[in-house]
Specification:
single chain; about 375 residues; alpha+beta; Rossmann fold; SH3 type barrels; Elongation Factor Tu (Ef-tu), domain 3; 3 domains; six-stranded antiparallel beta barrel; five-stranded parallel sheet; about 25% strand
Length: about 375
């Protein structure tokens, strides 16, 4: 009898090929696997008379997850996480946009729901671990995973094109001690071949990289929950004018709300003689600042808040790393410095990143993630750009 049969793993099954293969691999390796499908919040509005589904947990997705569980011979349960998802993820998404940021809901969902709520539920079910279909890896021998002296490292996935470590920077040592990433050592092509080998009905399931609870465009979603707030569109050169007063700034057009725009955006700016690019948002004066010059999007510095170090320990500063300012952006060499100015009464530390070379469209609210080789050492939320 395999020693793994004594180890109970709750496998998060979304109805996609990655989570399906993850569960099948664990079953093959002899673990006692329990499949779990999580139901998330969906918008109550109707589109063309039909209910709007959350892409991550549609009726079809649940059906596919059930079929996979039956195929590999594991018990299957559904966890209703609609309330928690709405509170932790959707509300954060709307509030952050309202503040002028461009949020990253997948990062928060991972921390609070997939590796927060799910671990909590799994432990109550008597499980030792949870497993997901993320393309990432965790260092350390499995038999030592619950050792208090063990420090777990979060590593990039084997498939560089599909690596999802960027979205996992908020995880901590306690969470990593309870997590398995079975497909982290495989490429996407290898995963699909494994799905065919296992005879899984999800082998050819297409991928979805959109925000799961947004049906059409982000702006359409925001218009349902955030009111319009018209204001002026002005060009950066006028803002830099020595006079510095509003009367010297020529109005190029009108925007309907600063939250409908993000830094670097070119489409949807309804003014002539373009193209124009969004380079800043002035919330004090409710002005959208644009420029025709792409170079105005280039910057070398940023301030990161809510920084999390995967090891649980801060490094010695300054520290040289490679950073990624958005998913799929190229890794860029940078130096991290401790930033002393923090809000009064705040327990968090802010850090300044200085890049070796200019970066395009650094955006507040997005994640900046730090790497040392294949190891994800930490990350933070972009708070200020200069």
């Amino acid at each position: 009898m395999s020693i793994n049969k004594k180890i109970k793993v709750v496998a998060a099954m979304s109805g996609g090929v990655d989570s399906s293969v993850a569960a099948a691999l664990l079953k093959q390796q002899g673990y006692f696997v329990v499949g779990v499908f999580m139901k998330f919040w969906r918008s109550p509005e109707l589109v063309e008379g039909k209910a709007v589904e959350n892409r991550c947990c549609s009726v079809e997705s649940e059906k596919m997850a059930r079929l996979v569980a039956k195929k590999i011979g594991v018990p299957f349960y559904v966890i209703n996480a609609e309330k928690e998802f709405k509170k932790k993820v959707v509300n954060y998404f709307l509030e952050d946009y309202k503040k002028g940021n461009t949020p990253n809901p997948c990062v928060v969902c991972n921390k609070e729901i997939k590796f927060g709520l799910l671990i909590e539920k799994a432990l109550k079910m008597g499980a030792d671990y949870i497993a997901t279909g993320h393309y990432a890896r965790i260092s350390g021998k499995s038999e030592a995973r619950n050792s208090k002296s063990e420090t777990f490292k979060l590593l990039t996935g084997k498939d560089k094109e599909k690596d999802q470590s960027y979205f996992l920077w908020q995880l901590n040592q306690k969470q990593l001690s309870r997590v398995m990433f079975p497909v982290g050592n495989y490429t996407k092509l290898e995963v699909r071949k494994l799905a065919e080998k296992f005879g899984l009905p999800t082998a050819k399931t297409p991928e979805s990289q959109e925000v799961c609870f947004v049906q059409n465009s982000t702006n359409d979603f925001l218009k349902k929950y955030l009111k319009t707030k018209p204001g002026r569109i002005i060009k950066l050169q006028d803002v830099r004018h020595p006079a510095g007063c509003r009367t010297s700034q020529k109005t190029l057009g009108e925007h309907q709300g600063l939250w409908f725009y993000t830094i670097g955006q070119r489409r949807g700016i309804e003014i002539q003689q373009g193209p124009w690019y969004v380079v800043a948002k002035d919330f004090k004066n409710n002005s959208l600042i644009v420029s025709k010059n792409k170079k105005d999007l280039l910057q070398k510095k940023l301030i990161a808040k809510n920084v999390n170090w995967i090891s649980g320990k801060k490094p010695k500063f300054p520290v040289k790393i490679k950073a990624r300012i958005r998913y799929r952006s190229k890794l860029a060499k940078a130096t991290i410095f401790k930033f002393q100015i923090i809000p009064t009464g705040s327990k968090q530390s802010n850090f300044k990143l200085l890049f070796d070379h200019n970066q395009k469209a650094i955006t507040s609210g997005q994640s900046v993630v730090f790497y040392k080789g294949k190891e994800l050492s930490g990350g933070g939320t972009i708070d200020n750009v200069s």
